[in-house]
Amino acid sequence: xxxxxxxxxxxxxxxxxxxxxxxxxxxxxxxxxxxxxxxxxxxxxxxxxxxxxxxxxxxxxxxxxxxxxxxxxxxxxxxxxxxxxxxxxxxxxxxxxxxxxxxxxxxxxxxxxxxxxxxxxxxxxxxxxxxxxxxxxxxxxxxxxxxxxxxxxxxxxxxxxxxxxxxxxxxxxxxxxxxxxxxxxxxxxxxxxxxxxxxxxxxxxxxxxxxxxxxxxxxxxxx
Length: 223
Hints:
The structure is a single chain. By secondary structure, the protein is of the alpha+beta class. The longest helix is centred in the first third of the chain and has 40 residues, at about 50-90. It contains three helices and twelve strands. It folds into two domains: about 5-90, no CATH class; about 95-220, Immunoglobulin-like, CATH 2.60.40.4070. The chain is elongated, with a radius of gyration of 33 Å. The strands form two sheets. Strands 1, 3, 6, 9, 10, 11 and 12 form a seven-stranded antiparallel β-sheet that branches.
């Protein structure tokens, strides 16, 4: 395939318009047509440009134009996708989202907390542990023996004495004990009610009723 060399411009005394360099697409079209006509006029009559060479140069021009059109198409597609994501996120307001995290804020001393935990591998005995902001253990809840997979839990908001725990922030941990006596912490997920949606530079975040901010892609389950 013949490649159009910039030196040909000087050979055939073609002048480039420096002002039009600001518009690469328009410049490429004018330069290509001008160069193609000049090549045809000045070709050796005994060695005319072959059809393959001519088609090759046409293909180069079509490729450049096609890339520009494809870029514009993707930009429009990206804007449409972002608008669709915002619309979907807005429809989530008022729903409860299950997201990975071990901390939640209770608005009142009667509020309950629901969540889930993942058990990898074989079965284990699970225990829910609730801590306050000072790191003090507030409550232990035996969850029994569980198998591999995801399991739910509920804390009724009471401490170890059966009294309502005050409103505020609490941290949850699920401790797994294997049949061989080894223990490990399970991954904890908590339910939070979605209060509002933000979009900043194409990034969507969800604000929950407990004051937390979550990424749109962090939602594991909705209800």
